[in-house]
Backbone:
C-alpha cells in the first residue's frame, strides 16, 4: 500500500516536556501534588505542542457494525442486536448517551456496516460499507477494496468532525471477537488471552468460541500486512476508526480509545503510522481480562477503573472530566506569570508542531 509513514509526527519534545514539568512543579508548591493528573497534563501539553492545552468541541464517535462470525454463534451473549443498540443510543436510552450530553461531548453514531437498515437520525452518520462482514472462519471478512473504502470513510469523518478531541468506541455483535483476532495477529499474542468467558458463559460455550476463532486464524494463517489482517478478520467499524485515528493524529488532536474495537483500530493505525499512539489516552467500559491484555499491548492502563460492564464509550464519557481537569492544571490554575507563554523560551510554534488543522493527510492517504 502506498502510504507515507511519516504522516503523523511523534509528540516527543524534551524542551517542552521539561517546561511542562517545571510549570507543574511550581504549582505543586502551593497546590500540592496531584498524582496521575500531572503526567496526564504533560501528555496533553505535548499532544497540542503548548504549555496551555485547551479543548474545543469534544466529540464522542461510536462506530457500529455487524460481523459474519455471528453465524457461528460468536457474540451470541450480546444483550441486543446492533440495530436496536444503535436506536437506543440515538434516543438516549443508554447511560453513555446521557453522560455524553451532561459532560458536553457531542455524540455521533456511525453506521459502518450494521446488518439491518438504520432509520435516519440527526446524530447518525450513514457510512455503511455493507450489511455486515462475511464470516472470517470461511473467507475474508471483507475485501481489500472494502477495507480501503472503510478507512477512507473514516478519514473523511475525521476531517469533518469539529473540535480537537475525539473519543472512539466500537459496537456490534461479534465486534470484540473480531478485534481479538486482529490484535492477536498484529501483536503476535494468543487470541485466548484477548477473549473472556464472562460470568455467565458455560465452559463448553467458551471452548466453542475458541474453536471458531482458531479456525479463523488457521484460514488466514499467512496474512501479515496490517490492512490485509484487517480485511481478513476485522469489522467495518474497526476500519472506519482506523481512518478517524490517522486523521486525528495528523492534526495533533487527542484520541480517547475506549474498548477492544478501539484498541484493534489503534493497532492497525499504529502499523501504518507508529506515532499515532502518542496522541492516545485509554478508557474502558468493560471489566474483562481480555481488555487488560489489549491495553497491555500499548503499555497502557485505563484512566479510570470503575468496574463497568456497559456500552463501549461509557468509560470515555466518565473520564472526560478527568482529562479536562488535567488540562486545567496548565491553563486555568493561576500563577504569578499568567497570562504566561504558550511555549517555553527558545521554542517557536513551528518547532515539532507536525500536522495542521487543514489538509491533515497532505496527500499521504492516497493509497487508501
Residues:
Amino acid at each position: 500500500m502506498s502510504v507515507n509513514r511519516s504522516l503523523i509526527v511523534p509528540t516527543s519534545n524534551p524542551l517542552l516536556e521539561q517546561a511542562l514539568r517545571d510549570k507543574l512543579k511550581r504549582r505543586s508548591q502551593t497546590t500540592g501534588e496531584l498524582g496521575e493528573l500531572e503526567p496526564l497534563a504533560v501528555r496533553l501539553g505535548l499532544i497540542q505542542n503548548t504549555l496551555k492545552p485547551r479543548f474545543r468541541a469534544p466529540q464522542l464517535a461510536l462506530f457500529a457494525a455487524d460481523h459474519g462470525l455471528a453465524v457461528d454463534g460468536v457474540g451470541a451473549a450480546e444483550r441486543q442486536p446492533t440495530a436496536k443498540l444503535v436506536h437506543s443510543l440515538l434516543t438516549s436510552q443508554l447511560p453513555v448517551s446521557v453522560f455524553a450530553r451532561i459532560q458536553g461531548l457531542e455524540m455521533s453514531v456511525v453506521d459502518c456496516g450494521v446488518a439491518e437498515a438504520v432509520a435516519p437520525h440527526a446524530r447518525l452518520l450513514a457510512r455503511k460499507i455493507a450489511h455486515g462482514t462475511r464470516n472470517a472462519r470461511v473467507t475474508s471478512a471483507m475485501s481489500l477494496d472494502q477495507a480501503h473504502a472503510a478507512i477512507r470513510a473514516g478519514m473523511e469523518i475525521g476531517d469533518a468532525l469539529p473540535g480537537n478531541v475525539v473519543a472512539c468506541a466500537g459496537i456490534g455483535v461479534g465486534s470484540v471477537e473480531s478485534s481479538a483476532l486482529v490484535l492477536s495477529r498484529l501483536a503476535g499474542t494468543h487470541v485466548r488471552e484477548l477473549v473472556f468467558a464472562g460470568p455467565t458463559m458455560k465452559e463448553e460455550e467458551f471452548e466453542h468460541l475458541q474453536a471458531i476463532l482458531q479456525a479463523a486464524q488457521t484460514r488466514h494463517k499467512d496474512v501479515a500486512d496490517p490492512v490485509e489482517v484487517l480485511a481478513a478478520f476485522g469489522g467495518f467499524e474497526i476500519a472506519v476508526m482506523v481512518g478517524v485515528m490517522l486523521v486525528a493524529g495528523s492534526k495533533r488532536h487527542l484520541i480517547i480509545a475506549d474498548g477492544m474495537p478501539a484498541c484493534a483500530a489503534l493497532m492497525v493505525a499504529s502499523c501504518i503510522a507508529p506515532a499515532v499512539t502518542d496522541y492516545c489516552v485509554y478508557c474502558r467500559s468493560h471489566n474483562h481480562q481480555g481488555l487488560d491484555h489489549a491495553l497491555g499491548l500499548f503499555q497502557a492502563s485505563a484512566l479510570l477503573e470503575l468496574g463497568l460492564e456497559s456500552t463501549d464509550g461509557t468509560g470515555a464519557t466518565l473520564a472526560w472530566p478527568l482529562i479536562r481537569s488535567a488540562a486545567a492544571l496548565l491553563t486555568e490554575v493561576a500563577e504569578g506569570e499568567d497570562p504566561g507563554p504558550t511555549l517555553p523560551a527558545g521554542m517557536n510554534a513551528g518547532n515539532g508542531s507536525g500536522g495542521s488543522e487543514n489538509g491533515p493527510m497532505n496527500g499521504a492517504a492516497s493509497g487508501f
Notes: Residues 157 and 335 are 39 Å apart (CA to CA). Residues 14-31 form the longest helix (18 residues).
